[in-house]
Amino acid sequence: MLKSPRISFSAAKDSYHQHDQVQRKVDENLKNMACQHLEQYQNIQHILELGCGDGVASIDIAKRLMPLTYDAVDIADALIDRAREITVDSSPISRCNFNFIQGDFNQSFFWQALPQKKYDVIYSNMALQWSHCLQRLFKYIDQVLAVNGMFVFSIPLDGTFEELKKIVRINKFTAHHEMQSLFKLLNWQYLSIDKQSIQLEFFNRLTQLKHLKSTGVNSFLGDGKEEKNGKGRKSKKPEMKSLWRYLHNDNDQMTTLSYEIGLYVITKG
């Protein structure tokens, strides 16, 4: 798997929307959950989105909530460039000022460079799994979230890509109960919680793996256990052999890919 999400998501910019059925389904469910609680808000001024991709979903959120400013962040340069183009080409959204930012929410300097304001809503759909430390990321979010503001996000949970655990290195996914423990540490209150299991079917193993590449999720953040060869470089031979056997023994049989998704609507009291 590729090491950098910045590289893999940029590479998938032309194929993403042909294969993002899981992300779109979760995004729609997440927005509906959020809007049930946001109907009472008459004046949403500032929204921050983490992992905005090419900005298509960002425009839809802005149309629903009509904020004054919308700061949208993604690590992939190519996707941010496309988001800026889409916003310029789309019909004007009344009063909303978009600001698309290329940045890495894992880095402290990213949060320091954000506009000096508190956000009424922070939104993220299936992006926070790329955090190196969720507890630290949540602390950054807490610092810029307004009192009584809402943090709305979805994230793949433990059990995602279960079919591939013995084949290739996959990132560690947080369990649902671990997520709830993090909320308690920050004294966040959850307004809505939902868990969804989604399983995709593929004609064979090759198309299963191509799906990962086409949606940009073929990145590995590392777990500190990678073996190194004599030159100090990480060795990929064990994984490549396992992957070769996996594809060689395919026999063109139907295979699956599982997603376990947590959807959360949080408020900061």
TrEMBL record:
Cited Pfam families: Methyltransf_12
Domain Methyltransferase type, first and last residues per copy: 48-151
Gene3D superfamilies, alphabetized: Vaccinia Virus protein VP39
SUPFAM superfamilies: S-adenosyl-L-methionine-dependent methyltransferases
Protein name: Biotin synthase
Species annotation: Cysteiniphilum litorale
Gene (name only): bioC
